[in-house]
Structure formats: C-alpha cells, structure tokens
C-alpha cells in the first residue's frame, strides 16, 4: 500500500499546480538545499580554517557541531512557531537569520566569532527547515504529487552532505574557505525577495510556545555532544565526559516529563505512539550519524593519506549525489510497488555492506574500492531517505505538520551531531600521530555499527503490528 500523509489542502504554495507555484516550490527547495549543505560545506576547509584563525584541535570540531547542535536542538521550537504564526513567515525569518550570520561567519577574525556565527546559522536553519517540509506536505494536491515532492525533498536531504563536500572543496581551492559561508548570501537574498511573491502564507494555529521544552531540548543536546567530543581527548571515564552526558540526560528527562504536562508541548507525545514513526526516527538518527561520520573520516583519508587537494577530495564524492539523484527519480515508483518498510530495510542493509570495505583500508587499497563504497552509500541513501520521511509523517494532521517535520529533522541533525561526536571520539582514542589508518579503521567500524543500528530499528517493524496515530 502506498504510504500517505493525511492532510487537507490549506494554503501553501501559491496557486498549487501553477507556474508561479512551481517556481515557489523550487525556491523553497533551494533554501532547504542551502541549509543542508552547510552541515558539511566547511568540512574540507577545516585545515585552512584552523591555520587562518588559529583553532586548536578541540575547538575545531565546533565549527561543524556548533551548527548541527543549534540546528537540531531548536528544530522542534521552529516547527511549533511555524504552526502558530504561519509557516511562510517563520521560513523567511529563518532564512534571513541564516543569511546574515553566514555573512558574519565569513568575516570572522577569531575562533569564537566563527563558532558563534555557525551556531546562529543553525538557529536560522532551525526556524526555516520545518516550514519547508510542512509546506510540501500540506500543499500537495494529491498523494502522487506529495510523493514526488517528498522524493525531491529526500534527495536534497540525502545528497546535500556530499554536495557540501564537493562545493566546499571547489570554493576552498579556487577562492578561500570564507566563500563556503559567503555563497549563502546571494542565495538567501534571492529567496527572501521571491518567496513572498510566490508562496502563500498558511493559516495560523492557536497556541503558546513551550520555552522550557526548547531550553531543555537544546541544552540536553549541547551537553551530550560536548561530553562525547571531550571523550576523545580526556577519556570516557573523565569527569568532564561523564558530567556532560549526565547533565544532558537529565535535561532530556526533564523535557520528557514537561512535554506530558504543558498545554501546548514542543514535542507532542502522541507523535511517538506510532511504531513506524518511532522506527523511522531512530533509523534516520543512526543513518545520518553514520553518513556524517563517514564524510568526516573519508575527507581525512583522502587528504592526509592520499594527499589529494580539497577540490579533488570534494570531486571524489561525486558518485554519491549522482546516485542519490538517480534513485530519487525511481523511488516513488518503487515505494508504490514494495512499500516504505521494505525499501528502508534493503537500503540500510546496502549501506552496511558499502561501509564494510572501509574498515579494511590500508596504504595500498585500490581507489576503486573507495569509489564503490561511496556509490553504494549514495544508492542506499537515495533508497531510504524518502521512505523514512513518509513513515515519519504518515497520518499527521495539518495543524501538527510543522511539529512532526521538526521532530523528524531534529532526529536527523542531532543524530548526525551525536554520531559524528561518537565516531570522532573513537577515532581519536585509537589515533596514532601521523597515521590515519589505525584510528580511521576504528572510526569506520563505529560508523558501520551505526548503520547496522538503523537496519535493526526498521527490522523491528517486520515483527510488530503496524499502528498509526
């Protein structure tokens, strides 16, 4: 049976099905691509950033995780604000903030200023991103149109990380690392000018904002990621590591309690009563964590061991976005024939198989092994992201579409941040100065285990009755 999202058709993309509506949808998707790219676009530029701004090893990881933690930690609040005050309005505020702090990040003259700018970019992204998915799911004219739009959204979400590496390498080699941030400014300006003319505002929904939920969700995410990052340098038994994890867990526990008691929760407990949705959220977190960790390790292998330039390193990832885009053209038909659960099971199993050769890398590994691993990863991502999205958003009422999409993207971003922190810590624990491969192989093993956990989460649906809310 084809997965559907139970939505009516409130105002969303202007004149749905018209030329203006199509242009508006593409511009909204362009903004989403910009937000996703920024999770990795500075990755290949990190050595240049460290040299230019004098980052130390511990600080440098926050160039990536400062963005990811703020993005993931505030997505639920961004989704709720979109439901209450209007999704187009919230989207535009988020894009404006993202564009402004991209400019300021590119102008940064110290590590602190860059990390602050990256975190504030994440704040803007957290406001904009939930409204993108909510506008798509509430404005499609029928199930077929919705599935096609979700396929495009999923392709952007899954190939954005690889495209960020390619774009980052090209900009770093041909201009400066600062242009990995400056490139967002003209895109953001175009979106801010055009979207108000092409995309209609959605109806406002009554309710209040759950500020305590936002504080505990974000604080818990920051504390957990901070603790995991510390583990690589100070050890897993260090008071700093344990303290960060305990504080993070305590804040998440407070979040779980308060969300059951407040009148307008940031995280609706009802959304977690569907086994298929919970499995999709867990699988997305583990999937994105494994993929970002693989990107992090692969960049170092290509640049440190194979001595490739940033541009060539970025281009080495080209098989991924190409295969993801190709899969996005056929996945809607596969979804109709085989169903979401089967596609996700096959796709996550393929990713585990693709990662396994990376755990055996050595100095004379043929480069074709790396290319095949990246190709397999791209095919698996293209096969799984859209079905996971449909499982997570199926049977969500229109008034809660922003909250549900915010929850889904929260799991994606925080899964990426936590997964990267875990793998980076394991890599650091086994690392030998001047020898990437010893720590790198341990890191690739941990990324493979994360992918296996994603497979296990979805396999659970095969043995349980499917329920929806």
UniProtKB/TrEMBL annotation:
<feature type="transmembrane region" description="Helical">
    <location>
        <begin position="91"/>
        <end position="113"/>
    </location>
</feature>
<keyword id="KW-0812">Transmembrane</keyword>
<feature type="domain" description="Major facilitator superfamily (MFS) profile">
    <location>
        <begin position="24"/>
        <end position="466"/>
    </location>
</feature>
<dbReference type="InterPro" id="IPR036259">
    <property type="entry name" value="MFS_trans_sf"/>
</dbReference>
<feature type="transmembrane region" description="Helical">
    <location>
        <begin position="25"/>
        <end position="50"/>
    </location>
</feature>
<feature type="transmembrane region" description="Helical">
    <location>
        <begin position="177"/>
        <end position="199"/>
    </location>
</feature>
<feature type="transmembrane region" description="Helical">
    <location>
        <begin position="444"/>
        <end position="463"/>
    </location>
</feature>
<feature type="transmembrane region" description="Helical">
    <location>
        <begin position="211"/>
        <end position="229"/>
    </location>
</feature>
<feature type="transmembrane region" description="Helical">
    <location>
        <begin position="278"/>
        <end position="302"/>
    </location>
</feature>
<dbReference type="InterPro" id="IPR011701">
    <property type="entry name" value="MFS"/>
</dbReference>
<protein>
    <submittedName>
        <fullName>MFS transporter</fullName>
    </submittedName>
</protein>
<feature type="transmembrane region" description="Helical">
    <location>
        <begin position="62"/>
        <end position="79"/>
    </location>
</feature>
<feature type="transmembrane region" description="Helical">
    <location>
        <begin position="414"/>
        <end position="432"/>
    </location>
</feature>
<keyword id="KW-0472">Membrane</keyword>
<feature type="transmembrane region" description="Helical">
    <location>
        <begin position="149"/>
        <end position="171"/>
    </location>
</feature>
<feature type="transmembrane region" description="Helical">
    <location>
        <begin position="119"/>
        <end position="137"/>
    </location>
</feature>
<dbReference type="InterPro" id="IPR020846">
    <property type="entry name" value="MFS_dom"/>
</dbReference>
<dbReference type="InterPro" id="IPR004638">
    <property type="entry name" value="EmrB-like"/>
</dbReference>
<keyword id="KW-0813">Transport</keyword>
<feature type="transmembrane region" description="Helical">
    <location>
        <begin position="241"/>
        <end position="258"/>
    </location>
</feature>
<feature type="transmembrane region" description="Helical">
    <location>
        <begin position="367"/>
        <end position="393"/>
    </location>
</feature>
<feature type="transmembrane region" description="Helical">
    <location>
        <begin position="340"/>
        <end position="361"/>
    </location>
</feature>
<dbReference type="Pfam" id="PF07690">
    <property type="entry name" value="MFS_1"/>
</dbReference>
<feature type="transmembrane region" description="Helical">
    <location>
        <begin position="308"/>
        <end position="328"/>
    </location>
</feature>
<keyword id="KW-1133">Transmembrane helix</keyword>
<keyword id="KW-1003">Cell membrane</keyword>
